[in-house]
Each structure stands twice: as C-alpha cells, then as structure tokens.
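Researcher: Structure prediction, please.
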Amino acid sequence: MNAVTTAAPGAPVVELDLSELRHDPYPAYAELRRSAPLAWVPSVGRHLLTRYDDIVHAEKLPEVFSSREEGSLLLRTVGPNMLREDDPEHRRLRSAAEPPTRPRQVRDLWAGSFERTAHELLDRIAGRGEADLIRDFAEPLVAANLALVLGLHNTTADDIAAWSRAMMDGNSNYANDPDIWLRAEQATRAIEEAVAEIAEAVRREPDGSVISSMVHAAEPVDLAEIQNNVKVIIGGGVNEPRDVFGVGAWALLQRPEVLERVRADPAMWKRVFEETARWISPIGMYPRQLTQDYEIAGVTLPAGSRVALVIASGNRDESVFERADEFDVDRPHHPHLAFGGGPHFCMGAWVARHEVSALAWPLVFGRLKGLRLAGSATASNSRSAAGRLEGWVFRGLTSLNVTWQASA
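Model: Predicted structure follows.
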C-alpha cells in the first residue's frame, strides 16, 4: 500500500506553523474542530482528524485505519514494533510484553519498589526547600520504575530518561532535523546493547520483567523484536507518567482549594489523574494510514491516505466535555482518549496510574510541607509555568520549580 502524500479531493487545506503548535496547539485544534474536522496540513504531511467522535470511530476500525503507516517517524526511529502493527502481529507482540504491566502484577511485583524509590528521591531533596519537580523527582522516579519493570538492571534511571527524550524527539521530528535523528540513533543503539545482555541473562533465569516475559513468550519473539519494542516502551513509559505528574501538580498548586479537598479524600487522586490526562494529553496524536477508500468527517479519503488521530484535540471537544479547556476534577465521567483506544490502548496505563496517583502525588504533597510554586502562586507565575509547557505530538512541562518548608 503506497502512501498518499497529498490532500484528499475535497479535503480542506490548512496551513499550521509547527513552532506555534509546539507552543500551544489548542487554539488551532479548536478552529479545526469548528471548521475543518478533517484537514490536510502540509507542514505535517497528513490529514488531521480532530473531533472526539471521529477519532473513536477510526480507532474502532483498525482494518481501515491501519497502524502500519509507510514512512512512519516511529518506524524510522525504533524499527518495526507493536505500535505500528495490526493484528495478528500486534497481538502476538503485545501478548508477549504485557503480562508484567497488568494491575495485579503492578500491585504485587512492583508497587513496593516504586514506593521505596519515591521516598529515596524525596529524601535527597527534602532538606533543600526547593527543587525542579520534573528534573529532581518525576523523571528519575518513572525512569527508575521503568528500568525495573523492563528488567534493565544494567542501566541507570539517567540512561532511561535520556534515551526516552532522544527517541521522543525523533518520533516528533516532522521538521526533519538531522541532529535530532543522530541523537535518536545513538539512543537506540545503546538500548539494543543493553537489551541483548539482559535477554541472554533472563533466558537462563526468568525474573518476571517485560524482557523476560518476551523471551519466554508462548509464541516466539526474536531479539530484534524485543529490542524494538523495549525502545517503544521506554519512550512512552517515561514521558506519559512524567508529564501527567508535572501538569497535575502544577494545576493543583494553582488551585489550593482543590488540593485541600484531594488531600482530605485520597480517593480523589484517581480523578485528578484522569482529568490531567484529558486536559493536557501527554501524547497528542498518533498516525494511521488507510487501507481502503473511506469517508469520515465529510471527506472521502483514498486508500493510502495518511491521517493523524489528534487525541489532544478530541479531549478538548466541547461537544463531549463541557468547558473543555478548564481543569475540573468534578467533571462528570466520560472516557478520555489520552491512552488511546481499541487494540492499541496504552500498555503502560496501569503502571502510570499507580506510580502517579497512588504514590507520587500523595507522597510529594504529604512530605513537602507548604509546597508552592517558586516565587509565588500568583497569576503571573502561573503564566510563567505555562510558558514551560511544550509540544504537540507529546506535551508536558519542561520544568516545575517549587519551594517548601525544608525539613531538618
């Protein structure tokens, strides 16, 4: 199936500046939903699908909206992988990798280590009275947790975090920056070496990790497949929980009355997690390619057409979420799209939910007394923090500087 690299007949053509999307994509998405819910965007080289119902519809038709996109940035970055496969290949790979990430396994195998790591990181900063919660806590926490779940005992949290950043930059490199490709290639080579070493070790002595699960899968998975899929997991397994943590903490620090309610009722942390993921989706879009002619959003797309399912836009669709641009933990429940849907629902969603809503937020807000945004919690400071929100393919805070009453 050859990719169609031009606008479908009758599709609106909308020029979007990638730098403006990186700064804040939501105004552009709102206009697209209103006037061109399926539009060809030359700077992205694909059609953007932006309304909630259309995205859900496409996700339910993997036989039409195929994950096997020719020329995918993810394929270029990491090689063939489960995210760019359809069933039955997708099912074979996912079934091999997924068992260690299921809710019971998270609770029984990993939760204790996750909590110990969180306390160790907080012990390092508690006496300082100030920190960047992204750099000093969230990123090293989720990277260390991911190394554990994957079974990469031969790497550090810093390695995992750096590899994830390099690959995520590659996955969103629509500007085709050669320096970004070089860093991504260096990261993927390092991952391949680390995975090969661990795969050999767990072949002799299984350890319950993702790599071990893939090595001993009922349907064989070869080393290259394990390596490529570990690359994919390292990408999403760092940026998604890190960015939900940062955005949610930032939102609560600006809303002390909401924070007070959540701290009084710990069950609300789960609602904070889901609303944060909806409000500013850590993954903003993912690509699909049509296997046949198909009409959606009033446009007939020919076979081979490339489409982006813009889940960040779907999560702000006013027809589904009232006051969609607002952060509201009391919002009536309606499924968001932040972790995708259908066969490709995010494999690491349960890990992310546990490490952020059950551990990271409660521990940070419980241990760091008087926690506040650095400088002040004024509107001007909030705007400054918002200026550190970046990205449209992936979006999150680049830093979250805070202060608190330092412990002795």
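Model: The chain has a mean pLDDT of 92.
Researcher: Thanks, that helps.
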